[in-house]
Specification:
single chain; NAD(P)-bd_dom_sf; three-stranded parallel β-sheet; 49% helix; membrane; Rossmann fold; oxidoreductase
């Protein structure tokens, strides 16, 4: 079979061979790119986040993506520093994380970063709540 294909290619003009070669290279490149995408998205092992440190700082961890990140980082074994505005929501999130991942250390910091940047962030120790 391959001998038959080679014989038919030998009888083709040079421009057909150039197009065939160019198309074959392009299709091979696309196939290799697809295989690389499959490896990166499905087969590659996850990064070890603990090599960057044992603590993760999360702002706005009480709702949405921040809350999901909190649970995911706790699942990966990192300790958390949760910074938010509402102490009740922070306590609720930290309690639910502690209930699910008991070994995770969690520190809650209540702080409001709103305001003008010209004035800087004013830190008042009375607004600091650290719960271990």
């Amino acid at each position: 079979m391959s001998n038959c294909i080679m014989n038919s290619l030998k009888t083709q003009p040079i421009w057909v061979l150039v197009l065939f070669t160019t198309g074959s290279i392009y299709v091979s490149k696309c196939f290799i790119s697809f295989l690389y995408w499959v490896y990166v998205n499905f087969l590659r092992p996850a990064k070890n986040l603990k090599k960057y440190g044992s603590w993760a700082l999360l702002t706005k961890p009480t709702d949405g993506i921040g809350k999901a990140f909190s649970f995911e980082l706790a699942r990966k074994g990192l300790n958390l520093v949760l910074v938010g505005q509402n102490p009740d929501k922070l306590k609720a999130v930290s309690d639910s994380i502690r209930a699910k991942y008991a070994k995770t250390l969690i520190k809650n910091i209540v702080m409001d970063f709103s305001g003008y940047l010209d004035e800087g962030v004013i830190f008042q120790p009375t607004n600091l709540i650290v719960m271990c």
